[in-house]
Write a structure and sequence with these properties.
The protein is of the alpha+beta class and 115 residues long. The chain is built from three helices and four strands. The chain has a four-stranded antiparallel beta sheet with strand order 3-2-1-4.
């Protein structure tokens, strides 16, 4: 499965939204997932957090932020959740508005080559 997480902060309210999108239809084997267009992704879940909740969690560290963004309905795997938390920290620390993360599930099965 190919997933995309779009994380953005509303400029007026400062609230942070995470949208989880996925490719639900089959794609051609060997396709370059980095070249997939937005129209092949479907919204799976969207959640918004208050500015105060995110800033407090960021201030308490990465583990606190991960615990804050995970919920009964939104529970990305550890690797994805860590990347999402890191993106949120960058957005907050650098006063940015958004970041997009792309994951291909097949990468979870690829073992790093030993030298």
């Amino acid at each position: 499965m190919v997933e995309k997480f779009f994380i953005y902060r509303d400029i007026k309210s400062g609230n942070m939204t995470i949208e989880e999108k996925a490719v639900l239809n089959p794609i051609k084997r060997g396709s370059d997932v980095n070249r997939l267009t937005d129209d092949v992704f479907r919204l799976v879940y969207s959640i918004t957090y208050s500015k105060e909740k995110i800033e407090s969690a960021v201030g308490n560290g990465r583990s606190s932020l991960i615990a804050t963004i995970r919920s009964r309905n939104f529970f990305p795997i550890k690797r994805h959740c860590e990347a999402i938390a890191d993106a949120i920290i960058r957005i907050v620390d650098n006063n940015e508005t958004s970041e997009e993360l792309l994951f291909d599930a097949k990468d979870l099965f690829i073992q790093p080559q030993e030298k």
